[in-house]
Amino acid sequence: MDLPNNILLSKxxxxxxxxxxxxxxxxxxxxxxxxxxxxxxxxxxRTVAEQLIHMNKVRLGWxxxxxxxxxxxxxxxxxxxxxxxxxxxxxxxxGKEMEEFLLELLNGKAKLRAFKNNPFRWMGYIISHESxxxxxILLALKQNDMxxxxxxxxxxxxxxxxxxx
Length: 165
Hints:
about 65% helix, mainly alpha, 5 helices, Four Helix Bundle (Hemerythrin (Met), subunit A)
């Protein structure tokens, strides 16, 4: 992969994306098996697995839209099974696709069709969207007596931003 002229800044941007994706992968790894079916109490919302699948679909949908100008339809996207193995594989793949597309944007080899063609703004949107769902996932687990260990919930999901690799 080619890096744009400002190599240091580009590396930092890609590292921020990788950090975010690794936090998602840690969460997926830490969810108890029965937790994938949890929903927040008094909610008709998505299960934990459905939220993760939605996050992945949004990533792929935006990449597709920016590249083609067309929305990604449900027939185009591969259906993901609601289990740890399939969701992990999907997040690794879409995380890599995000990384590659961010590099294309930073190199001036691609353009965004929204977000004022600002790759930082778009990445911030994706990270914010996924962080919102991580919060919903943690709430669903907590309310269904499946609280993650503090080492994962605090150190892994939060402190990784401050002190992690």
